[in-house]
Automatic annotation (TrEMBL):
<feature type="compositionally biased region" description="Basic and acidic residues">
    <location>
        <begin position="155"/>
        <end position="168"/>
    </location>
</feature>
<dbReference type="GO" id="GO:0046872">
    <property type="term" value="F:metal ion binding"/>
</dbReference>
<keyword id="KW-0732">Signal</keyword>
<protein>
    <submittedName>
        <fullName>C-type cytochrome, methanol metabolism-related</fullName>
    </submittedName>
</protein>
<feature type="domain" description="Cytochrome c">
    <location>
        <begin position="64"/>
        <end position="128"/>
    </location>
</feature>
<dbReference type="GO" id="GO:0009055">
    <property type="term" value="F:electron transfer activity"/>
</dbReference>
<dbReference type="InterPro" id="IPR036909">
    <property type="entry name" value="Cyt_c-like_dom_sf"/>
</dbReference>
<dbReference type="InterPro" id="IPR022411">
    <property type="entry name" value="C-typ_cyt_methanol_metab-rel"/>
</dbReference>
<dbReference type="GO" id="GO:0020037">
    <property type="term" value="F:heme binding"/>
</dbReference>
<keyword id="KW-0349">Heme</keyword>
<keyword id="KW-0479">Metal-binding</keyword>
<keyword id="KW-0408">Iron</keyword>
<dbReference type="Pfam" id="PF13442">
    <property type="entry name" value="Cytochrome_CBB3"/>
</dbReference>
<feature type="signal peptide">
    <location>
        <begin position="1"/>
        <end position="25"/>
    </location>
</feature>
<feature type="region of interest" description="Disordered">
    <location>
        <begin position="147"/>
        <end position="174"/>
    </location>
</feature>
<dbReference type="InterPro" id="IPR009056">
    <property type="entry name" value="Cyt_c-like_dom"/>
</dbReference>
Length: 174
């Protein structure tokens, strides 16, 4: 049996899995589609914060989430949310994690023990540099998980809306 036949059979066997994964990715991106805008913040059909990326320009909250992620989260969760030896890849976690669960884990922390291994996500509910930007972080990670935002700093972003400035001043005590 030739190598070409074996590889062809292998590819044909994987096709249903690949199309299933693509369908899930399409579903995820469709679910994340911005249907409403409030003061520069985009929301999906369920009212959850989401991203809006058009012609390489990201919304302010996605850009802010990128900045916040790389100031507080990347040390454990890796560059561009791709994971590390002791913290999961959030680009994978956010594919199935809903908004409420994300908020709960970041605010309250989480401890996973199993297989002789212990992972601890510290609580950030008292850290204003994280807590005041939870939506921004969620939006950025959601865009990364959906493949809508590439690795690295977004090259272009929308201007910061007045509503974002006001929310930041209110939360940070300014």
């Amino acid at each position: 049996m030739s190598v070409r036949i074996v590889i062809s059979a292998f590819v044909l066997a994987l096709l249903p899995l690949a199309s299933s994964s693509l369908a899930r990715a399409d579903d995820s991106m469709e679910k994340a589609k911005a249907v409403k805008e409030e003061g520069g913040k985009y929301l999906d059909a369920d009212g959850n914060p989401t991203y809006k990326i058009e012609n390489g320009t990201v919304d302010w909250y996605t850009f802010s989430g990128y900045r916040r992620y790389h100031s507080d989260c990347h040390v454990c969760h890796g560059q561009d949310a791709t994971g590390s030896s002791y913290a999961p890849a959030l680009v994978n976690s956010l594919k199935t994690m809903d908004y409420a669960t994300f908020l709960s884990i970041v605010a309250e922390g989480r401890k996973n023990v199993g297989g002789g291994k212990e992972n601890v996500m510290p609580a950030f509910g008292d850290n204003k540099n994280v807590y005041c930007y939870l939506d921004d972080l969620y939006v950025y990670l959601r865009a990364r998980a959906d493949g809508a935002a590439p690795r690295g700093r977004p090259p272009k972003h929308e201007d910061k809306a007045q509503a974002a400035k006001d929310a930041e001043a209110s939360c940070m005590g300014g």
